[in-house]
């Protein structure tokens, strides 16, 4: 199936590593030009961007940015518009994860989760919609939620769970608000995904396998395949959809 994404421009937040890097790879293979917006050192994301360009003959851009900082968000969009003139797709993927017992959570700590998981997504989405409005065009937003927003079998991470719950509600609310303008907003719900951050947590991996009907954790690309499909004109009936990509963990 041709996803009809060749030549489009996609911004992927947290695109240098993990699920976001998987999204960048899948987009590039579909011929989509990719903007990697990540807070890792620019050398790392620039190297990845160059590899994607060389392998797939697409144009790429790496921007060092913290999505919770309004100036960083401005920089992502100004550099994107300078290079590409437009943007078609926003993957709100960067997120702050972590485990903190309720007894130890301070308001300051809670705010760090809110800053990235809610404010970052909000700022990125608002700026994306502004461009769609100015250019009188539609677009696609995909938000990375988490099974933690729905099932709490990991536990001990209420700030993360609560902010991911907000991503779920934001996704549906925004879809209702801007869907009629041709701006598609959908969410994906990963369960347990092997990334550099989670790879070495061997005990966790053993425990997780017991509760994942598929019997193993997901790879970033397995999540990315579904997320990228949601940006295709072929997914025209998906609006405000919350797509379970948890290997059955949500059951
Ligand atoms: N890994 C899992 O098991 C899992 C499960 C469910 C949901 N998720 C969600 O998937 C998303 C991606 O997670 P991952 O597992 O790929 O993580 P990861 O740590 O492997 O990669 C996250 C990337 O985001 C970047 N990033 C973090 N905060 C940022 C910020 N403020 N601004 C810009 N970039 C930032 C990091 O530098 C990193 O490159 C997150 O929203 C996470 O909550 C992950």
The fraction of residues assigned to DSSP E strands is 15-25%
β-strand number:
7
pLDDT < 50 stretches: none
Hetero ligands: nicotinamide-adenine-dinucleotide
Oligomer state equals single chain
The helix count comes to 7
Q: Give the rounded overall mean pLDDT.
A: 95
Spatial extent as radius of gyration: 17 Å
- What would CATH call the homologous superfamily? NAD(P)-binding Rossmann-like Domain
Instruction: Give the overall shape.
Output: globular
Second-tier CATH architecture: 3-Layer(aba) Sandwich
Q: Which fold name corresponds to the CATH topology?
A: Rossmann fold
Topology:
Layout: E1 9-13, H1 18-29, E2 33-38, H2 42-56, E3 60-64, H3 70-84, E4 89-92, H4 107-134, E5 139-144, H5 158-178, E6 183-190, H6 202-211, H7 220-229, E7 242-245
Parallel strand pairs: 1-2, 1-4, 2-3, 4-5, 5-6, 6-7
Helix pairs in contact: 1-2, 1-7, 3-4, 4-5
The structure holds nicotinamide-adenine-dinucleotide.
Task: Explain this structure.
With 251 residues, the chain is of the alpha/beta class. It has one domain (9-245): 3-Layer(aba) Sandwich (Rossmann fold). Helix content is 44%, strand content 15%. It is built from 7 helices and 7 strands; from the N terminus they run βαβαβαβαβαβααβ. It has helices spanning 18-29, 42-56, 70-84, 107-134, 158-178, 202-211, 220-229, and strands at 9-13, 33-38, 60-64, 89-92, 139-144, 183-190, 242-245. It has a 7-stranded parallel beta sheet, sandwiched between helices. Strand 2, helix 2 and strand 3 form a beta-alpha-beta unit. Helix 3 runs parallel beside helix 4. The two termini are 29 Å apart. Bound molecules: nicotinamide-adenine-dinucleotide. Nicotinamide-adenine-dinucleotide binds next to helix 1 and helix 4. Nicotinamide-adenine-dinucleotide binds at residues 13-14, 16-20, 38-40, 65-68, 93-97, 116, 120, 144, 146, 190, 192-193, 195-198.
């Amino acid at each position: 199936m041709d996803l009809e994404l060749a030549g489009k421009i996609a911004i992927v937040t947290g695109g240098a590593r993990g699920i976001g890097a998987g999204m960048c790879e899948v987009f590039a293979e579909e011929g989509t030009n990719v903007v990697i917006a990540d807070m890792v050192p620019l050398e790392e994301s620039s190297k990845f961007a160059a590899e994607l360009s060389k392998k797939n003959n697409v144009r790429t851009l790496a921007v060092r940015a913290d999505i919770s900082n309004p100036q960083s968000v401005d920089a992502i969009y100004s550099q994107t518009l300078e290079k590409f003139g437009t943007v078609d797709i926003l993957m709100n993927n960067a997120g702050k994860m972590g485990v903190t017992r309720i007894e130890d959570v301070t308001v300051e700590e809670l705010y760090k989760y809110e800053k990235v998981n809610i404010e970052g997504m909000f700022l990125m989405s608002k700026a994306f919609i502004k461009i769609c409005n100015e250019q009188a065009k539609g677009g696609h937003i995909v938000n990375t939620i988490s099974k933690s927003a729905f099932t709490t079998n990991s536990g001990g991470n209420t700030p993360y769970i609560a902010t991911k719950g907000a991503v779920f509600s934001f996704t549906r609310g925004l879809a209702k608000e801007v869907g009629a303008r041709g701006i598609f907003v959908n969410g994906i719900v990963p369960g347990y995904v092997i990334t550099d951050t989670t790879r070495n947590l061997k005990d966790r991996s053993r425990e997780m396998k017991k509760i994942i009907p598929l019997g193993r954790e997901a790879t970033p690309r397995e999540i990315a395949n579904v997320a990228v499909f949601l940006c295709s004109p072929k997914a025209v009936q998906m609006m405000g959809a919350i797509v379970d990509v948890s290997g059955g963990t949500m059951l």
